[in-house]
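queue> pop job 88
queue> type: inverse folding (structure -> sequence)
queue> payload:
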């Protein structure tokens, strides 16, 4: 894959580590088949304002924004959006304005959820924030803000939620290449990649990158919001479009896109005891900090499926999408519920 022709700007700390999780592996070894050998791809360590998976996408999105002489980045997300935090940081790094729309998607009125965690960091990074009720048409809201920016003489560059369009997904096509190269250097045969799947860009980029390379590694996305049929359709469409941009649309087939949405719980951004247990287990085995919305739910799914024998005998790479900054927005819910 010749990704340099898409002119990304480089600010992520890459390559991110690919490391074993020996104590989590031991904790999951109780299934009849012995459980999986678990490794972790540390995309929480990409560096930008605490890191996270959106940083890879933003390298390509900022490259495009700068090529189009943008002066203001415009984006959206839920109140505790990791994507918004990283976009605000990228804007600050390149001297751009940043307009963000935060959707009250969970309905939480808790002070820590609405003022701490990522929200505090958004403000620190200089983003101009406006909030809208849950259920708002966010594409329309983005268009309206972009029009306002243009009316005052600035040049807006609109980034969709999660940075999940074809340009952003290139960041995870590149990650697929990076991961395969690391595995080859380590002599590691990877049987499965497990990650959170939400706005679809990370999942789709991985599928596209692996398909274009011809690397036969299945990706399992653990859903955090949409039903299975909707999520898989979104990922498949974006994966095909990303592969098309790379010149090989036909290499992405429908069977490559698999999402398990059994671990969404009560809804996006809403946590349950199983999520808290997953956060706690990851922290107390290998010192890994997950977030409650994405990586925590993905780990909840990985743990439950492993205990049911789904990954017996496999080497599984958990792609950590970051977001531990959001833990502070859930302090009220976490206190007293960690065993």
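queue> result:
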């Amino acid at each position: 894959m010749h990704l340099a022709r898409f002119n990304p700007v480089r600010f992520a700390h890459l390559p991110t580590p690919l490391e074993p999780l020996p104590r989590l592996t031991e904790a999951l070894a109780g299934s009849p088949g012995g459980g999986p050998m678990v490794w972790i791809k540390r995309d929480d360590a990409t560096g930008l304002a605490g890191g996270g998976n959106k940083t890879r996408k933003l390298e390509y999105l900022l490259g495009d924004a700068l090529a189009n002489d943008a002066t203001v980045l415009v984006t959206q997300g839920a109140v505790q959006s990791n994507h918004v935090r990283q976009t605000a940081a990228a804007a600050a790094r390149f001297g751009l304005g940043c307009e963000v729309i935060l959707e009250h998607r969970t309905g939480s009125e808790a002070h820590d959820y609405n003022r701490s965690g990522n929200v505090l960091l958004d403000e620190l990074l200089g983003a101009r924030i406006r909030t809208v009720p849950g259920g708002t048409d966010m594409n329309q809201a983005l268009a309206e803000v972009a029009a306002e920016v243009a009316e005052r003489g600035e040049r807006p560059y609109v980034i969709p939620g999660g940075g999940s369009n074809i340009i952003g997904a290139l960041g995870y096509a590149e990650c697929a290449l990076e991961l395969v190269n690391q595995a080859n250097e380590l002599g590691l045969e990877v049987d499965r990649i497990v990650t959170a799947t939400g706005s679809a860009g990370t999942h789709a980029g991985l599928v596209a990158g692996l398909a274009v390379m011809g690397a036969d590694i299945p990706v399992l996305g653990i859903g955090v919001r949409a039903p299975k049929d909707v999520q898989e359709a979104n990922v498949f469409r974006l994966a095909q479009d990303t592969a098309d941009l790379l010149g090989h649309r036909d290499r992405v087939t429908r069977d490559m896109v698999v999402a398990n949405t059994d671990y969404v719980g009560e809804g996006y951004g809403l946590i349950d005891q199983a999520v808290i247990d997953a956060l706690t287990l990851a922290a107390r085995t290998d010192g890994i900090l997950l977030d409650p919305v994405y990586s925590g739910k993905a780990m909840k799914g990985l743990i439950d499926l492993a205990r049911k024998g789904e990954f017996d005998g496999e080497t599984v790479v958990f792609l950590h999408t970051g977001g531990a900054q959001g833990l502070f927005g859930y302090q009220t819910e976490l206190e007293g519920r960690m065993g």
